[in-house]
Amino acid sequence: MPENFKELLKQDFSDLEAAVGSWRKLAKALEEAQVRHRHKVTGPLHAGEWQGADAGNAFIQMEASETQLGTAQSDVTSIATILDTVHTKMKEAQEDLRRCVRTTELDGYVVDDQGNVSDGRPCPTGDADAAEQEEHQLRVAKLEGYKNDIQFSLDEASTAEWDGMHLLQQIDAFNLDKDYGASKAEEGARKAAEFAHLDEDDIPSKKDPKENAKWWSGLTEQERQEYLDAYPEKIGWLDGIPSADRDEANRKVVDLQLAEYDMKKQRGELGIRDQRQYEGLLKLQDALDKADGSRDENKQLYVLGIDTKARDGRAVVSLGNPDTARNVAVQVPGTDNDLTNVDEQIDRVGRLQQASVDNGARSTAVVSWLGYDTPEPDGSMVDTERAEPGAEGLRAFTHGLRESHHGERAHMTVLGHSYGSTTVGLAASKGDGLDADDIVAVGSPGMIVDHAKDLHINPDHVWVGGAKDDAVSNHFSGLTLGEDPMKKEFGGTVIEVDTEGHGGYWDKGSTSLRNQGRIIAGRDASKGDYHS
Length: 532
Hints:
By secondary structure, the chain is an alpha/beta fold. Helix content is 52%, strand content 9%. The chain contains 15 helices and ten strands. The strands form two sheets. The protein has an eight-stranded mixed β-sheet. Strands 1-2 form a two-stranded antiparallel ribbon. Helix 13 links the parallel strand 7 and strand 8. The longest helix has 54 residues. The protein is elongated and about 110 Å long.
């Protein structure tokens, strides 16, 4: 005999629907509380002068509270997702059940209050002809089919209720002292997403920013939040979706990976490579904490990619929001850079941004794009093995920025230093290019191509600079990585450089830095001398 037939048939789900709304409202409030805490409590204190042992202990406690708010938000979102999915599945089961009952009764069968199905029509007698016997057998078969359909609807409702209850028992959103923190919340979010059929396999895998943006915009706000909580490592690298969403996902990844390294450290399992990645993450977190305290939107940091699992670690960090800035620059570092010097890269884009502002471009975002494994100062810097995967990723990234940008088209400049200019050159020369308005190469060993026109850009907007004592641009350029871009035959414009060495192009107050700022601002740079 079917169970809960009458209850499901007449069930009113308005209370469950209201509960979903309440949990979503709470999740939103927790998210907003975490953001306020970040920008009005920990951020300003990090940006200030409060130092010493007491300050250090206080920061640990405040950052723990901030993380707990994020963990609670993720857990509460998971609860809302589970309840909403139970509601959806049970509502569908109810509709199926009602449809089954109507169809069964229209076909001449009787369905009682317990869900039992019977056929009130008389059975054929022994002397009935073959046609009557066949019709009766057909009615018996249909009766069994209707019984099965009703039972299937009841089973679907029962399964949804049981699975939902089981998942909810695994989530404790109000135990904020739990030691598993963000990783357990992510695990719960994944289970909730899978229950709601928001599968990881549905996330676009191709590096097509237009497809990524289309998929993301086609989700509801709740679905986007569920994906952010359940699969932050993938969402954070999706070129083409809003930078604010990527930042939210990647900050979750930073919390997760820091927690993982903290646990390894406590157990004495932190290896040499782990230690380097851990140090890099701590530097990134410190930079984020300080930037969160700034009231200037242009000084806010956006994490557009983070990965400690890659060879040397990867980090894509923007100073300012590239989706809203009038001028956007992407700085690609070269040889011997990794996650451990992410603080230096952030400082470098800060100098480039200020140089642009000094040249009249107040609305400027500058991205440090360490989205590839840079070569070490050895044989790996004389071929394109490292540049090839980096070029593909860089091309997707710049087109993604075009896709996620709001309003009028931004003026975009892509700058490459050292081997980073090789990666820029390879990226610009393939496919549809970088869709940049200006390309800058400093300290370049070569940009792969033999002429600036091969970079899918007007050669008048290809700028090249090299210090007189820069060994890379003076002695390695033109050997294995394409023509020397500082030669007149290359077709670009050489900018004036007054700094020394291979790493001085961002020295404060220098003409080298000022010229890069002018280009980012859409202005011409002062000219320098070509290589002979």
